[in-house]
Amino acid sequence: MKLRKNIATSESGLLFNPVTGESFSVNPIGIEILSMVRAGKTKDEIIDALLQKYTADRITIENDYQDFIDILFHNQLLEHHEKKNA
Amino acid sequence: MKRRTLNIGVTGLNAIDSPGPGVSVIRALREAESFDVRIIGFSYESLEPGIYMHDLVDRTYQIPYPSGGTDTLLKRLKYIQQKENLDVIIPNFDSELYSFIKLEEKLKILGIHMFLPTLTQYEERTKVNLNDFGERYGVNVPKSQAIHDLNSMHNLESEFSFPMIVKGKFYDASIAYNFEQLKSHFNKISAKWGLPIIIQEFIHGTEFNVTGLGDGKGNTIAAVPMRKQYITDKGKAWGGISIADEKMLEMTRKFLKNTKWRGGFELELMKNKEGKLFLLEINPRLPAWIYLSVGVGQNIPEALVNLAMGLKVKPFPTYTVGKMFIRYSWDMIVDREEFEQISIYGEL
Lengths: 86, 348
What we know:
The complex is a heterodimer.
Chain A: E1 8-9, E2 14-17, E3 22-25, H1 28-38, H2 43-53, H3 58-74
Helix pairs in contact in A: 2-3
Chain B: E1 5-10, H1 22-30, E2 36-43, E3 59-62, H2 70-84, E4 88-90, H3 94-109, H4 119-124, H5 130-137, E5 144-147, H6 150-153, E6 164-167, E7 173-176, H7 179-193, E8 197-201, E9 206-215, E10 220-231, E11 237-242, H8 246-259, E12 262-271, E13 277-283, H9 291-295, H10 300-308, E14 324-326, H11 336-345
């Protein structure tokens, strides 16, 4: 899974899609996930990292992660969509 | 080296809620790097805000409405020319363009240059002819039909389904969700802008615009696509952002190459959910948001003036993506004497 190469991201969590002109703001956990996506980490590696940092069970984190990824995909910010059970 | 000062006449000083492009064009011209300017405003009504913006407009003259005919306009322009020695005029209203195009050669003899589309270009892109335009140049356009009376509206239901767009021949557009609304929009818009009224298929999607400049030989001198971020109840952009959509730029280049468009323009586009682009309208002049072009590195009004003056202008190679414009309104304090001067004497 990759962010589209022309998507601009800022440290404060603002995403700008230069093709559509749309802007999105993500919360601090979203910023963490995006930076791990940018670093090329896999879904499992990202979920493991979140599990170590936050006090939530694996299923909750997996669901929240998948919701976030689905929203990114829906808004044409990702090159590839990672299916839930893929 | 001292730069040449050009005397430039500009219309469209109505910087109101549905603004004319004049004030934005003037701001761009004042930032031109290749010449200095003295701006002569042309107004139709005494309350056009640009008349009173003395830091932008050096002197203003009222000119006759297009309905007065080209002879009346020429007579007035000759009078103005004697006083102001104009080098260039930039007309900014769709409704006045026909008269200025007709007068282009006569004004050139007086020393006034313009850079306008030809009469053929002007006419083949009208809303009435949009279907033919789309077919001729291979561009997706929504189905449109011109109607001249209320009776023809009854036959529309076989061709169009609700909602549909009801458009005036120059300005105004409203969405009709049922026959009653269609009738009401027809009456309202035709009372203001005359006939025909254009009925257009409603395309669901996101609205975009491209402004640019064609050199009349098929080359793209400038092109800046923009997404409207904030739209007023009149459908005008109150905020927008420059974008990098290659499909839009390609459509623009194709439009300029195929039509050999001469002058400034604005393409109104709609992108549907499948990403397909539809050309809704071609405005044959610069748009009110043209100052964004200066913000992204393409001073289109400056390039247009240089082309009008017969200079060679190189295409702009690039522009800044993600630059925004946000429009605002501003109350000016004006002495009654100034209002009196322009209202009674037609000059300020």
